[in-house]
Design a protein that fits this description.
The protein is α+β, with helices and mostly antiparallel strands. The protein has three helices and nine strands; from the N terminus they run E-E-E-E-E-H-E-H-E-E-H-E. The chain is globular.
Length: 146
């Protein structure tokens, strides 16, 4: 799989999907967001609900790999993580809906679920191997169909 301009990520509540410019699927990873039993309607609930709907960016140059000097727990985070940054338009829309959340990452871990991040579980290595091939930010669209 070759990285191409126009490639982007989508999250539908079940899968993190890498698509090309025309929307064709290039790769896919099972992902969870929010604590077990949370629903897309809980996206405004801090430390419980899933990543709020909207447009974000993921920058491969910001991938962080766990090493001895890090202080984040491998059981919760897995071995790798990358920040998920809301676009200014999404942040504005969320504030208008009184959703004030942030500090999200794509990461792995041993147990499914998160406090709003995208948790790839044991499939994190394959995702980060793919993400490392990009030299530019990738757009991430989160859409639960609400």
């Amino acid at each position: 799989m070759e990285p191409e301009q126009g490639d982007h990520l989508e999250y539908d509540g079940h899968n993190l999907i890498l698509c090309d410019e025309e929307g064709f699927i290039k790769d896919m990873w099972t992902a969870t967001s929010g604590l077990p039993r949370s629903k897309p309607q809980d996206q405004g609930r801090p430390n419980y609900g899933p990543l709020p709907q909207g447009e974000y960016v993921v920058n491969p140059r910001k991938i962080d790999y766990l090493d001895e000097s890090d202080h984040w727990s491998p059981g919760d985070w897995g071995e790798s993580r990358v920040p998920i940054i809301a676009t200014p338009e999404t942040k504005k829309e969320q504030l208008e809906k009184e959703i004030d959340r942030g500090g999200f990452f794509v990461h792995g871990g041993k147990k499914p679920g998160s406090l709003g991040c995208l948790d790839l579980g044991q499939d994190e290595e394959r995702f980060f191997d793919t993400l490392e091939q990009y030299n530019w930010e990738l757009e991430l669209e989160v859409d639960y169909g609400l």
